[in-house]
Write a structure and sequence with these properties.
By secondary structure, this protein is α/β, with parallel strands linked by helices. The protein has 8 helices and 10 strands. A hairpin with a 2-residue loop joins strand 9 and strand 10. Helix 4 packs across helix 5 and helix 4 runs parallel beside helix 6. It binds adenosine-5'-triphosphate and magnesium ion (MG). Magnesium ion binds next to helix 2.
């Protein structure tokens, strides 16, 4: 299977999710994500570390934006700020027309629940819950309950090729399988914004390819906006935009 620029293959798994309302992304002018002057200073005791030094970034709806750069360049910090998980020291972040940097904690957590699916670098699964329960929990938080939540959770696990591991606890899953459960959980409720921190890092090439296609289809067919941190150069070929970070700044000479 091949992935060419701005195209991806529609898999039958994705088709089954009713993403039939195709959005022509080339006609959309609005920014789904807009960051202005984002700075982040980490303070631990007397130590002060400037992790982001005034980032400006715009991501159009329905597109795939990559964040790349060396380890420690600030990718996870920026992604976490774009998702409202971290509050920047200064600067503004606007998501889907709302300035999240001005929202109360309560409003922001509701906004995140309703609009953002986040795939963490370290998976962040609940160890006491099995695979399907981890995904179901994300659906329940979004107000989907009972049999409907169970069925949707199983469908999401099926999409990432893990239908047969639904009852397994995270400790009994391989790193790649845990990563796929985390991806299924992030896609619960088909969020408009999908933020993924190295979603293919723990996957072999076959499963990595499947995840790339899955995220690509959600953007191309479902109109979701995807921001992905990656070191995986395969992903570059179908992204709409690639931004390189270097020491907390956007590097204009790709590294
Ligand atoms: N909580 C924290 N307290 C202090 N410094 C931090 C904290 N989190 C991150 N940093 C520092 O900020 C810088 C950027 O970290 P970040 O995790 O964003 O990098 P990254 O580009 O995602 O790296 P990697 O590719 O290794 O995941 C690093 O130098 C890191 O040590
Ligand atoms: Mg990181």
């Amino acid at each position: 299977m091949t992935i060419s620029q701005n195209r991806c293959i529609v898999t039958s798994r994705i088709d089954s999710r009713n993403h039939s309302n195709f959005i022509d992304v080339s006609k959309l002018k609005t920014s789904a994500i807009s960051a202005r002057g984002v700075e982040m200073v980490y303070q631990s005791g007397r130590q002060r570390y400037v992790a982001l030094k005034g980032i400006d970034l715009d991501v159009r709806q329905g597109t795939i934006q990559l964040l790349m750069g060396h380890s420690g360049s600030g990718k996870t910090t920026l992604l976490s700020i774009l998702a409202g998980i971290l509050t920047p020291t200064s600067g503004k972040v606007n998501l889907l027309g709302k300035e999240i940097t001005r929202m109360s904690r309560k409003k922001l957590s509701r906004f995140r629940r309703d609009n953002i699916g986040f795939i963490f670098q370290g998976f962040n699964l609940f160890g006491a819950l099995n695979a399907v329960e981890n995904v179901k929990l994300a659906l329940e938080i979004k107000g989907i309950r009972g049999k409907s939540a169970t069925n949707q959770a199983l469908e999401l696990l099926n999409m990432v090729g893990l239908a047969n591991k639904a009852k397994m606890l995270p400790r009994d899953l391989s790193g790649g399988q845990k990563q796929r459960v985390a991806i299924a959980r992030a896609l619960a409720g088909t969020p408009q914004l999908i933020m993924a921190d190295e979603p293919t890092a723990a996957l072999d090439s076959h499963n990595g390819q499947a995840v790339i296609e899955l995220l690509c289809n959600l953007a191309r067919e479902g109109g979701s906006t995807v921001v992905m941190v990656t070191h995986d150069s395969r992903i570059q070929s179908f992204a709409d935009n690639v931004t390189f970070l270097e020491d907390g700044e956007i590097s204009h000479n790709p590294i």
